[in-house]
Amino acid sequence: MRLTVLVDNMCEKSSLMAEWGYAVHLETPHGNILLDTGGPCHVLLHNMARLGVAAEKIDHIVLSHGHYDHVSGLGDAISRAPSAVLWGAAGIATERRGDADAGRFNGGGPLLELPAMRKVDPEAVILPGVTAFVVPQEARDPAYQVKTNLWEVEKGGKVVPDTFADDLSLLVEGQYGVSLLLGCAHTGLPNILEYIRKHFGISSLYTVTGGTHLSAFSQEKLEVCLEQFRQFPIQRWRPNHCTGFAAAAALAGTFADVRWAGAGATLDL
């Protein structure tokens, strides 16, 4: 299996464009998956063309969650891959905001009220060897979740801290072992690792890649997370997007194989 980072905050090739957004392409022997669709600058199709990734050959589009920086390119993706199967977690259409007075749109809403979307609740096999899953709320330690400037609007109009009910990740069983593909890990990466240990019986990973949302952690909380990561053998780290420079540097100072996976990066799984 081969993973190609299509959209990220940074680029690894000069012909690509960067934006605050995220999208990756996973090529498997059984079909192709697009995880997320990038942000509001709509660089997805540009980068796909430059990287030689054929949008028409995408079989499945999986949305890790409903925030704008992961779903803004959905219309672009569907226009080029209209027969692709669309996946998302329950609650993905909940309207989300970037401030408590609901003045700054952050994702969800009517754009994602799509009746054809297949729901991941709490897990689903997308293709052989690729499983999407959602960590149940009761399995989430709130100490590992960051909710600053992240809100959602309940059906009655009340604005509450984002529950991240729609946050999902992918487990990929490749030739080198099992890898974890993240969107933003709003569930809390330590919570995700603990869940796959208990629920799926997975005790080690080949690769962890994607947004880890460690950028919003204080140094003290980051150290706590690093200690949790030390308890779970991970051969290589390929963070990006919402991980942040300081957290990526801390990961690189703690583990042997850590590299930022910007747009254009390819990973054999």
Which descriptors would you attach to this protein?
6-stranded mixed sheet, 269 residues, 6 helices, 7-stranded mixed sheet, Metallo-beta-lactamase, Chain A, alpha/beta
Describe the structure.
This protein is of the alpha/beta class. The protein has one domain (2-268): Ribonuclease Z/Hydroxyacylglutathione hydrolase-like (Metallo-beta-lactamase, Chain A, 4-Layer Sandwich), CATH 3.60.15.10. Helix content is 19%, strand content 28%. The protein has six helices and 17 strands. The protein has helices at residues 44-51, 68-71, 74-80, 189-199, 219-230, 245-254; strands spanning 2-7, 23-28, 31-35, 60-62, 85-89, 96-97, 105-107, 118-120, 123-127, 130-133, 151-153, 159-161, 169-174, 177-181, 205-211, 234-240, 266-268. The model has no long low-confidence stretch (mean pLDDT 96).
Task: Please sum up the structure shown.
The protein has 269 residues and is of the alpha/beta class. The protein has helices at residues 44-51, 68-71, 74-80, 189-199, 219-230, 245-254, and strands at residues 2-7, 23-28, 31-35, 60-62, 85-89, 96-97, 105-107, 118-120, 123-127, 130-133, 151-153, 159-161, 169-174, 177-181, 205-211, 234-240, 266-268.
User: What's the CATH superfamily, by name?
Assistant: Ribonuclease Z/Hydroxyacylglutathione hydrolase-like
CATH class: Alpha Beta
Provide the gyration radius in Å. Answer: 17 Å
Structural class: alpha/beta
- Mean pLDDT level: 96
Q: What count of helical segments does DSSP give?
A: 6
Count of β-strands = 17
Cα shape: globular
List the helices and strands and how they pair.
Blueprint: E1 2-7, E2 23-28, E3 31-35, H1 44-51, E4 60-62, H2 68-71, H3 74-80, E5 85-89, E6 96-97, E7 105-107, E8 118-120, E9 123-127, E10 130-133, E11 151-153, E12 159-161, E13 169-174, E14 177-181, H4 189-199, E15 205-211, H5 219-230, E16 234-240, H6 245-254, E17 266-268
Parallel strand pairs: 3-4, 4-5, 5-8, 14-15, 15-16
Antiparallel strand pairs: 1-2, 1-17, 2-3, 6-7, 6-11, 9-10, 10-13, 11-12, 13-14
